[in-house]
Task: structure prediction
Amino acid sequence: QKEVEQDPGPLSVPEGAIVSLNCTYSNSAFQYFMWYRQYSRKGPELLMYTYSSGNKEDGRFTAQVDKSSKYISLFIRDSQPSDSATYLCATTGRGGNEKLTFGTGTRLTIIP
Amino acid sequence: NAGVTQTPKFQVLKTGQSMTLQCAQDMNHNSMYWYRQDPGMGLRLIYYSASEGTTDKGEVPNGYNVSRLNKREFSLRLESAAPSQTSVYFCASSERDRPQPQHFGDGTRLSIL
Result:
């Protein structure tokens, strides 16, 4: 079993819809949670960074962490064609040199 | 502000050839990483360097070597390329002192024939 599981999709939604992307993890030591966006033929870029449980909002994006169920989510409101990309979740523990563990990514397409 | 720069962007090699992938960052980060990304496998860590002068193996180190040339530069070498090493390679960097997000380059697309 992988430490981080992510549905690979692909996921297609119409423009303006709310998108929900999800990951589950198995290691209770994970404390920091990130979402990266990766456009085709580009490197991953950091989208959201959260610590422990709760919600964090940044514009149209909301990251949600539920440590009790080991479940992390990214919500995109008013989705735009420019949101079409692969979204990767990532997590790491508390230590200073802890390495990131990534999900495999979900490919999202927003249909105009 | 270049961030993380990788060279080359594309490369085709024949089985058995050697090659060095270059990476440089201008963010004064202590830690640097090499990943490979394959369909359905996600990002897998090959090697990392927590600070200048140190390197450690990641999840899939076999067939690779690395050099942390200085604080800015971290290179990945394939001594004898194999078709299984066909992949997209990403370099990343981060601050060292606490769990921090990593900043990625745009990758090197490598094909081994």
Summary: Chain A touches chain B at residues 6, 8, 31-32, 34, 36, 41-46, 49, 88, 92-100, 102-105 (CB under 8 Å).
